[in-house]
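Our consortium's second objective concerns turning raw sequence data into structural hypotheses that experimental partners can test. To show how far this objective has progressed, the report includes one record in full. It was chosen at random from the queue rather than selected for favorable results. The single chain below, 387 residues long, was entered without modification.
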Amino acid sequence: MSEILHFNHNEKSSVLLIFFFHALVYCFLLLKNGIPENKKDSKWLAVFVFLGGLYICPFMLGYAGWYSIKSYREFLFFVPFQQLFLIGPVFYFYLKSLLSKDFSLTKKEIFHFLPATFYLIYSLVVFVGDKLILDEFYFYADGRDKDLDFWYQFSGLISMLFYLALSLKYYLEYRKASLQEVSFADEIAFKWIQHFTIAFGLILLLRVLFFILNPEWGEFGSKYWYYLCFSILLMYISITGYSSTLKAGTILRPKLNPSDNQFNEENNIDESEDLSIWKHKINTLFESNDVFKNPNLTLTDLARDLDTNRNIISKVINQEFEMNFNDYVNEKRVESIIKRLENGEHITTTLLGIAIDCGFNSKTTFNRAFKKYTGESPKQYISKNQL
C-alpha cells in the first residue's frame, strides 16, 4: 500500500503538484463552460491547459521519487506526458476559434497534427517492443525517459516557435481585416490574445535559455526553476484565459476571415470608377443620415446603403480619405462630439453619454479616438477651448 501511494512530498514536488492540480481544475472549468454551449475557444483552451499540466508531470513525479521505483519509472517511461508536437497546433487553433466566428477544423488542417500522431505511434512501438515482445529493454536500455531526449525537446521547441509565429501572423491579419471591415475594431481586438502570446513566448524564451544554459535536458539538474516559471505562466494563462473566454461570449463577433479575398480591397474593382464621386457620396451619407451613430456599423452596411460593393467603398476610404474604415467612422464620431461640446451639451450630459450617442461602444475607445484626432483628451480639449 505504501508503494501504491508513494509520493515524496518535498519543496519541489509539492509546489509542482499544486500547479498541476490548478491546471486540472481550470481544464474542467473551461470544458464546463465550453461543452454545453459548444464554445470552441473554451474547449481548445481547455486542451492547451491540460497539455500544460501534463508537461510538468515527469518532473513533478520525478522529484517525488517515481524514477527510483521500478513500476513507477516504467510508467513514466511509457506514457508520453510531454506532447510537444501538440501544444503548438492547439495554441494556434485556440486563437483561430476565438477570432473566427464560424471556425471549424477542416480536413486540410488535420495535417497539423501529423507530427504528434507520429510521436504517439513511436511511443506505442517503444511500449510494445520493450514490454510485450522483448524480454529486456531495447529502446530503454539507456534508462532515460524518451520524452526528455534532446532530439524530441529541440524539435518540439521548433514546432512551438513555428506555431507562435503562425498565430501572430493570423492575429495581425485579423486586426488588419477588422480595421477595414468594422467601426468597432477596438471592441473585438481581443487584447487578451496579446497577453496570451507574450506569456507563451516567454515560456519558449525560457526554454531556449535552458537549452543554452543546460543542454543536458535528460538530467534533472537545475531545470526545476524552468518548470516553476512554466507553471506560473500556465497559471496566468489558465486564469486570464478562463475569464476572457467568459467575456468573449458577450462580444459581438462579425464573420471575419483574414484569409478571405473579401478583405483585399483591390479585388473586383472597375479601374474606370471615378473614386472622387464615391468620396462625395460617402461624405453626403455621413452628413445627412448620421450613419456613424450605429455602434455596430460595418463596411457591408455602408456598401448596402450606397448600393455598391464593399471593395469600392474600402478603396475609396483607403485612397481618397487615406485611412481605414474604422478610423474614418471614428473621425466622424469625434467631429460630431466636438460640435456637441461647442453647443455646451457636456454641461447637462456626461461625456460618456455623448460619446455613446455618437456611436462609441466604450469610454476607452472614445478617449483613444478623441486624442488620436485632436491630440488632446476630451477634458483637455474642453479646458483649452474654454467650452
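The partners drew two points from this record. The two ends are 80 Å apart (CA to CA). Confidence is low (pLDDT under 50) at residues 261-267. Both points have been shared with the crystallography group to help prioritize constructs.
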